[in-house]
Design brief:
homodimer; 425 residues; Rossmann fold; 46% helix
Chain lengths: 425, 425
């Protein structure tokens, strides 16, 4: 299971430990639902609930899509897309031999991007999974109108069988359309906000279609949630939450999530949403940024080593690689690398990580390590609930509601006004 | 040509203008080579020099590769890969109908990533372009040893014809190997640092192989450099450099580069290296981060709108999209979007951008806009020299050497020690 290593922050602290008393209080409030936004803590039981209620129908829809289509077009924005995108990228190449290609649209307004996807799709058979609680968010609503049109031109009256709507169980424009047209529906739970929803149908249907073993994801997430529910300073979510809040109090205002696997890039984007949107409010919050190592040691590495000292670094490590590659021996050794011949590249990567840790600590950057057993479905499930739990604890520790996002409305209001949206829509 | 709009910072300034006197001084020092690192300002004439000296042989090598191979494996890290990767992503889908697929390796140590690329490559014919001034940087040197082995197994003695080395003109391990083996060579110029080298063979050979019109890139870059050489407050590079330095002085310590085209993602990574590595030293520097809009308005948007007020936002806009898509009319208007029917999606995107600008300024985030005519080869050429010029001016304004990166050595030293590298290698 996931472990946290705080050895790299101790020299930066003014006292022996992070503030576990505050973590205990946040933990209590989170679990008894008495904190701000307590009505949105359904994600604490989401894996178990999904296994019981929707897993079977998600698997069956995924099987149908995989058997008849080459691609699934997923329409969603924010929490309705980042989790699935993160999972598909993180696990795709290893698991999806029998899966469909997944295209993500409706997460922006770029016309060139849209046209590129339509071109790539070509004449392939495809299904659409539209994900929106209300159906009124502009970007996915526009994309859905466009892809509905493409489906109708391609399949005529049978188009409706190629549409899967993940939406509110009762209300909203999208639910109403789905009921009238007879589209298959999945539920966006009422008590789970967008950025906490990846282990509902929101994330799971695209993941299953891509070939990811979602039963494994849910099983490991559920099991790990039971661990995280135990209070105490050995709780990894407490360690991470309390460690970063301690550093924030000392003036480390920006957190770098650094990872060594390129396939983790969108998981870091998901992490940014989770923490940035949960904590960044009321004029406070740790600024979340991400770096891909070792690549970015040759770009942002200079800044991390020698720039202003407001950075803390959280390093995500998979303890075992999924494959191996022995460094070959070369006759003559003209490139001078024979001292590494016969070693597994993964070992060299691990050594590089240890070297980076020591160099950055010496440079004045506190270091937190998150150790995940493997980059697989179980690891993904653990990562999701680990970060969600730690984020909620951390946000409560800093005194904000982890589950609202009042600032997101500002640009929408301004945009709808400028676009001339009728007031009754 | 590129324009800068500073209207979104004026309400945040304590005086009428950014400090153009300091920009003038930085400009002078940059152009006469008298500043710190003045021996690394060869990039100021790089487009013209490349057109004169190497363009023809780059085009000829690219034509050879395209005619016989399905893929080019590019081996490099940091400045030896980010520029080409940025260009291929930004322009690839529109221009590369006749180009090869480009794989980037040697920019990290992930064994799974390496094995994924080897699997994807399969039995396809391929060439290798190894890019390293010295040949001793660990990540690309290891990858090159591995792919050299693959080429030798595939092509036997003819393997050497599939290797193109972009390296120092005289010295270094890689140059020595290239001379002994008879590999085709291109030059990493002595007077241009890695992050300023994309308009040399370093970036241009991969770009040309991907199908990008590099003559157009170089022509527009060269022309725009002449514009940028004219001093004065109407110089767009001055405006950008002086605007962001002014904001930095007022406590805005983090710059968000926001863009509306998903294909710009790696151009933002290139920008992060350019500015982060040039400015982040001696304990100072603006922290560079990037956001993809509108997607990230639904993730980091909350933080930008309501979090701590140390963010400035620089928005990159292409004035014209490369394609269009008219929003369809729908009978019944059940999704309520007919008020947009018939409008081009690109117009909606532009309106969204204007709405975001106004919402963020109201929320306390100063806004700089960079307007690029089009997302094409000419636009890429202009963007490269615009950012490079502005970065050098900005770094000189803040009193640091824009062209060194002393902090990058720290992790390397520590890593080589831990790996047990013999001291003579």
């Amino acid at each position: 299971m996931i472990k946290v290593d705080l050895s790299g922050i101790s020299t930066f602290l003014d006292s022996a430990d992070p503030d576990y008393a505050a973590a205990a209080q946040a933990h209590r409030v989170l679990l008894d639902g008495s904190g701000a936004g307590g009505e949105f803590t359904g994600w604490l039981e989401l894996p178990r609930r999904t296994i019981k209620n929707e897993l079977k129908s998600i698997l069956s829809a995924a099987a149908k899509i995989k058997s008849r289509s080459k691609a699934l077009v997923v329409i969603g924005i924010g929490g309705s897309y980042l989790g699935a995108k993160a999972a598909v990228d993180m696990l795709g190449k290893t698991d999806n031999s029998e899966g469909c290609k997944i295209y993500f649209v409706g997460s922006g307004l770029s016309v060139d991007y849209l046209n590129d996807i339509i071109t790539e799709l070509g004449d392939d058979d495809f299904d659409v999974n539209v994900i929106s609680k209300s159906g009124t968010t502009l970007e996915p609503a526009l994309a859905f109108r466009i892809f509905r049109g493409l489906l109708e031109r391609k399949y005529g009256k049978a188009a409706k069988k190629h549409i899967f709507a993940t939406t509110d169980n009762e209300r909203g424009v999208l639910k109403k359309m789905a009921d009238e047209e007879g589209w298959d529906c999945f539920v966006v739970p009422d008590d789970v906000g967008g950025r906490y929803s990846v282990l509902s149908a929101v994330g799971l249907l695209p993941m299953a279609v891509s070939g990811i073993d979602i039963s494994e994801v849910l099983g490991s997430a559920s099991e790990y949630l039971s661990e995280l529910a135990s209070p105490g300073p050995s709780n990894p979510a407490w360690q991470y939450a309390a460690g970063r809040q301690k550093l924030y109090g000392l003036g480390y205002s920006t957190e770098l999530l650094a990872y060594y696997e390129p396939s983790f890039r969108f998981m870091a984007e998901w992490w940014k949403q989770l923490f940035g949107e949960s904590e960044g409010k009321n004029g406070i919050g740790i600024f979340p940024a991400s770096l891909e190592y070792t690549a970015d040691l040759h770009s942002m590495g200079q800044f991390v080593q020698d720039g202003p000292r407001f950075l803390m670094e959280t390093v995500l490590q998979f303890e075992k690689a999924n494959s191996e590659f022995k460094i070959p021996f070369a006759l003559g050794d003209r490139d001078g690398l024979n001292y590494l011949a016969g070693r597994d590249l993964a070992d060299v990567n691990r050594t590089a990580a240890a070297a980076v840790k020591s160099a950055h600590i010496l440079g004045g950057v506190p270091n937190i390590e998150i150790l995940v057993p493997r980059r697989d479905a179980a690891g993904f499930g653990e990562l999701v609930v680990f970060f969600q739990f730690a984020c909620a604890v951390s946000a409560y520790m800093s005194g904000v509601n982890p589950f609202d996002q009042p600032g997101v409305e500002a640009y929408k209001k301004s945009m709808f006004r400028m676009l001339g949206k009728p007031s009754d829509k």
